[in-house]
Write a structure and sequence with these properties.
By secondary structure, the chain is of the alpha+beta class. Helix content is about 45%, strand content about 30%. The termini are far apart.
Length: about 220
């Protein structure tokens, strides 16, 4: 099995991750959750992921304010770390087989010493999610799987075709676009992909309408 076949097997093993972590404002998928999802599979296949920092940039911003309790002047400095990276997959059984991917990450810290670590953690998590096209949502995995397995309804396909027409696109190009995005003609799309396709088209329609109004 070559390295590309191994990476496809990893992609097949994780289609969806539920957002389990909770911040003060929203739910999100944690770094440990993402790593745990693929760790056993990449170990079984003998894959290594090697991050490398190519370049870095550090921006700082200091804000001065008055403490509401003491009335004393204070200041806080925020450190914004940017990393230009490569993420390289290596096959342990044949290290000459490698897949190198350019990547970018960033991390924000108040104290200053944790900016690089935060950027590396954030970068690794998002690289894995995007490289393997892993969906994340607040829905539970069973609900996601239902949409993924179920073929899109005729009503949903009709909406896609209607928006496509509103965009002024030729009808015979719809299947070409669907094939390019999802590897299937529009009538064969599952519910998950059809909903996503419709959202993309609606967003494009909004942009088109806005530009027309400005003109």
């Amino acid at each position: 099995m070559n390295i590309y076949e191994k990476l496809v097997e990893v992609r097949k093993s994780v289609k969806y991750l539920q957002k389990e972590m909770q911040s003060s404002q929203y739910k999100y998928t944690g770094s440990s959750q993402v790593l745990a999802a693929i760790r056993n599979k990449i170990d079984d296949l003998g894959l290594l992921l090697v991050p490398k920092i190519i370049d870095k940039n550090l921006l700082t911003e200091t804000v001065e304010f008055t403490d509401s309790k003491t009335g004393n002047p204070k200041k806080t400095t925020t450190y914004f770390t940017e990393l230009i990276m490569t993420m390289t997959w290596i096959s342990a059984e044949d290290p000459t087989q490698q897949v190198e991917c350019p990547w970018y990450s960033q991390g924000v810290d108040i104290a200053g010493e944790k900016g690089v670590g935060k950027a590396l953690t954030y970068g690794e998590k998002n690289f894995i999610l995007k490289f393997f096209n892993i969906a994340t949502d607040k829905d539970d995995p069973d609900a996601f799987q239902h949409r993924f397995d179920q073929q899109a309804s005729k009503e949903l396909i009709a909406k896609i075709k209607a928006v496509w027409t509103k965009l002024g696109m030729k009808a015979n190009r719809l299947d070409e676009q669907s094939q390019a995005l999802y590897g299937e003609n529009v009538n064969q799309l599952n519910e998950q992909f059809a909903e996503e396709f419709l959202q993309k088209l609606n967003e494009k329609l909004i942009v088109q309408s806005t530009q027309g109004a400005i003109a």
